[in-house]
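Q: What structure does this chain adopt?
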Amino acid sequence: KGYRPVVSAAAVIILLLGTQTEAGHALIHQIKEIFASQKEIVQEIEGNQEKANVQLQSPHKSNYVIYVDQERYQFIEGEKSDKIVMKTPVEGDFPEVSMEIQQIVNKSPDVIVDELAAQIKTKYEIFYEPKKIKEPVEGWVVRGVGGHKWDSPIINAYVISNEKQGSFIITQRYFLEAEEGHGARFDEMVKE
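A:
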């Protein structure tokens, strides 16, 4: 939590200088080095305090860093988005458990939120109108739940500004019974 002012200042500097120049890329690399490569966090899972060792991930093609609980999850860097998935998937017919991070460079959060709301509204039985949030990130959340059964799929899509003309979309997928487990862990990763 002591890093948050440094992180905020670093994000502003990154976004002001941009990533189009060689100097901008060098600055991003230096700022990423400010973060500890590993740290221990305490998170609340299902009403209990739980310690977790997290590892810093800083994708080469994206302008963000994230701490990932590598005991339970693996980070997969992709061409258009990055994904955090269970290290050992549960056997059986369960809904997807993942968190995907994508940057859309030419669409503002307001536009993205409207598009996501239209998609989620048609695919999920229970739809929650988009709302502005401050936790786990400052931005918007669009949420859908596939029903009331223990294995009903859930989607949480967080949309935040990239402080330019675009947005980051952080899409969490899990199921109702996993909300206090995977859902809480994903939110903690987003906070960090």
